[in-house]
Amino acid sequence: MSLAALPLLDQAVLVLAAMALFSAFALLAQSRLLAAIHVFAWQGLLVAAVAALMGAASGDVNLYVSAAITLALKVLLIPWMLHRLLRRLALERQADPLAHPALTLLAAAAIVVFADWVAAPVAQFEHSATRNVIAISLAVVLLGLLMMVVRRQALAQVLGFMAMENGLLLAAVASTHGMPLVVELGVAFDVLVAMVLFGVFFLQIKDSIDSLDVDRLSQLSASIEQDEEPEPRP
Amino acid sequence: MMWIVLAVFTPLLGVPLLALLPRARVAGWVNLGLSALSLAGALGLAAQVLMHGTLAAHGFRVDAFNVYLVVLTAFVGLTTAVFSRPYMHYVHAEEKRVGARGMRLYHSMYQGFLFTMLLALTTDNLGILWVAVEGATLATVLLVSLYRTPAAIEAAWKYFILCGVGIAQALFGTVALYFAAQHVLPAGANGLSWSTLYAIAPQLEPRVMVVAFVFLLVGYGTKVGLVPLHSWLPDAHSEGPTPMSAVLSGLLLNVALYAVVRMKMLTDAALASSATPGLAGHLLMGFGLLTFLTAVISLHRRRDIKRLFSYSSIEHMGLMSFGFGVGGPLATFAALLHMLVHALTKSSIFVTVGHATHIARTQRIERIRGLIRTQPAVGWGLLLGVAAIAGFPPFGIFTSEFLLLAATMQAWPWLTPLLVLGLVVACAGLFRSAQPMVFGAAPPGQYPVRANMLPVALHLALVLLLGIAIPAALAHWLDQATRLITGSGLL
Question: Does B208 contact A at CB distance below 8 Å?
């Protein structure tokens, strides 16, 4: 099935989804935090555009609402909050380079193939042309997960978390024309609260270890568990 | 409907109320009162379900499976509030580890947590279920870091990230489920309503359901504490305030498992005529067994008392998952009963542990010694609690574990030795730590506290009662729930 044979609208959705996937790669590889926040905002915009396009195609008001929520939350509010945090923590120039960039990107490519394989049974079952979007959205979710694993900076991990949410939204919009409104609102509320809490945490972590390098957090619990202090005889 | 509102939304009212209430001492009482109101609502709801059967209206669904969990949640919420009032007052006023703002946050989020739990249990909408379970993480994450120590902040971060990642997978699973439903349901039907989905489950596309279930299992399984993603659990339990550990272990894990089982019911029905009808059960069995065995080994050589018991929680959640995975009326009945007795026992243990850590002023096992001499009530509470959780007769956990073993012997005989071995190793691990804590020679510098052992006594008495004779109404419910899950009853 060639892209050109599809109706114009499907083509547009596919292109936008592919760009969202590309932005997930960009997010993964971007070492400068400020630029990563911008990439994240672009990704949100792409997802919102997909939702709005699907809304235009189906005439479903629900999809417009979810496009609006995404625009407000993922493109404007959350990047703005992250910006403020970055300034407050004086991290604007901070870079968090990947330890093994080539390996990470290879893993990311493997994840895309894996996502395609996982989504294959779902895609077979779907007859509309947007079926590939399900595989793409799963790939975006898993790439966000990968980002949370490989990044050491707490802020970069949060971006990974939020990128996962973008992927989930893409899945919901593309495959099911959006979840019911009440669920959509609930999810948006949870994401917003999560973002506020992340902000609180950054300050707490910064206070506690004077850095946002999460690797330094993991040594603490190791010392609790493997404390080699001899047991006093009762 | 009135009872649902009373049970579920009383705690929601408490969230802003307690956040604004400046007096910590009053807040403790208000917290208790709200929890009591919620329990009253839950009991009313239970009476109604007992008389009229399943209640489904306005997006809520209360049937035999969740009604007993609603009562359990409200009950443990109340008894933990009873414990939490003097405990947190001590932490606030004597130890000065938490300031006035921290206390406001604590009480407000305690009610917030109860609200999310009760909402997750009573809602019929799988999307709302997801929102509520995620909300539970958000409500508790700041409580884990309440003491603001580096270890507490680390634990809270880990909890947040791991559960956030896990729960995102569950949302993908929910989307996939919705997707499958949309192809069967007419336009305009609510494809996320569990009742609707259950009615049409046999028509759901099996291949999509497999994908959905795997994601849902990974997602909610993270919250259950299933093994590859369990590492948040001991951290969050050990670093947060003890009443939080009690409700996390007693309630949150159960609710997450409840979500998994609801999904399994849909998946089983959808896969019934496919090539792999038992796939969901086998997955649950595998993860359950792995979790159980890993936790059993981890029970040994713990140094932190709260970590010890949180590994024990993981162990029991593994057993329950295994039980639901085995399927069949006997194993399901056993797992349902186990959910009940484990929640009661484990929250009573955490209450006792809270007192013990105040007596010894440390959480390190090797410095907690001779509780039975310093403060006999706490010592006995810990001893009986450990005996109950290790599965000694005549406590209820013995009954449920015995039933589970019997069911395993029928269905998968060659797995029985593994289970028995695990239970013995777990018992050894628990007593190895608990015995010196209870009977050892108390070092100088112990600080007897005013311990309110009423919640512990009440919980253990109930567990004992459940071990000797399950009340007819409860047995009826459990049987109804078993019938709902497996299609055939036990009694």
Answer: yes
